[in-house]
Amino acid sequence: MYRRSTAAALLLAAALTLTACSSGGDGKADEAKAKPPASTPVPDPADSSAPPATPGAKPTGPVLPDAKLTPKTGSFKPNEKAYLSGRVPEKMDPAAVLQSGQEACQRVERTAKRDKDAATGAVISGEIPGAKDAIPHLCPAQKPILDAAAKGFGDGTRPAPAPGTYRALTQNTACTWEAKGKDGSVLASGPESAPKAGDKITATVPAGAAEFTSVNCSAWIPA
Question: How far is CA 7 from CA 18, 67, 108, in A?
């Protein structure tokens, strides 16, 4: 009886050993088979170091000659051809370049309809890319906005500002400014008192100012 029990135990142990071997021993092989292969991450376009092209900007490389500025269907108007001249990269569809200019005009028109100061400030700051080039050809009705923007300057530090009084194109109560001389001394600053919502903010740049700095003021035009 004892011998039969011992033999049965030995047979059971052998069977267990064979089962373990056929399953990969410690189970790592099965785990490796079940685990999906690591995937290669897809690069995010936002991580690209190359700066995006500015809509409406003239390319630095070869461009299509004016004779080849033709859409796939129909034809361009004279003002559209004038806008596209020297602005279409050699292997690009002229219609795509024209569309970027038209979109810039649409943004200026929509903004000016609500607030002309906001539209002028957006052109000065470059918030509407390509607007300065598009307006003369594609939406000449907005030239007053462009003319006003040409006389202004944006937020930040402006060296050698022309003396005079300027108006901020914002009603932001956090707008502050100062004018400094060549030695770094503050010649003027403001606002003198905290502006209230809706107040017009002005700055007077004295003669001899070496730089004018503003923060949270959007942009400035002559008052």
Answer: 17, 99, 95
How far apart are alpha carbons 210 and 208 in whole angstroms? Answer: 6
Q: pLDDT tens for residues 4-33?
A: 444 444 334 444 343 443 444 444 444 444
Q: Which two tokens stand for residue 162?
A: 């022309």
pTM of the model: 0.70
Measure the CA–CA gap between 166 and 151, rounded to whole angstroms: 10
What is the identity of the amino acid at 57?
A
